[in-house]
Amino acid sequence: MTEKYNGWTNYETWRVNLEMLDGMSCTDFGIHPVSEDERDRDIRQLEESIEAYVVELVEMDAKGFALDLALSFLNKVDWQEIAGHMISDYTE
User: Fold this and answer.
1) Contact status, residue 70 vs residue 62, Cβ threshold 8 Å
2) Closest alpha carbon to 90 in 55, 43, 48, 45
3) What are phi and psi of 78, to 5 degrees?
4) Do residues 10 and 4 lie in contact, with contact meaning Cβ atoms separated by under 8 Å?
5) Contact call for residues 78 and 10 (beta carbons, < 8 A)
6) In terms of C-beta density within 10 A (0-12 exposed, 13-18 middle, 19 or more buried), how is residue 18 classed?
7) Which residues, in sequence order, are bridge partners of residue 70?
8) Residue 67: how many CB atoms within 10 A of its CB?
9) How many Cα neighbours within 13 Å face the side chain of 6?
10) pLDDT tens digits for 17-40?
11) pTM, whole model, 2 decimals?
12) How far is Cα 56 from Cα 59, in angstroms, rounded to an integer?
């Protein structure tokens, strides 16, 4: 079992949310949640968009071994948790 980190699933999820997504919302990714019935669909779409965005940022700056390490780090991120958090913030 993974230990929580600052209330997040793990260190990687917390750090990516803090360093790469701070101040962003689901609307920055074209997601405008309107109903609770579509929440799961919105989370899945946002999750995919967030991961693609972060991976693209990393791939722009890293190469070789550094890129491999960064992508390994990103594989541990709970993208669904970040997406759910963004959607919850938007609907509150």
Assistant:
1) yes
2) 43
3) -90, 90
4) yes
5) yes
6) exposed
7) none
8) 13
9) 8
10) 999 999 999 999 999 988 888 889
11) 0.90
12) 5
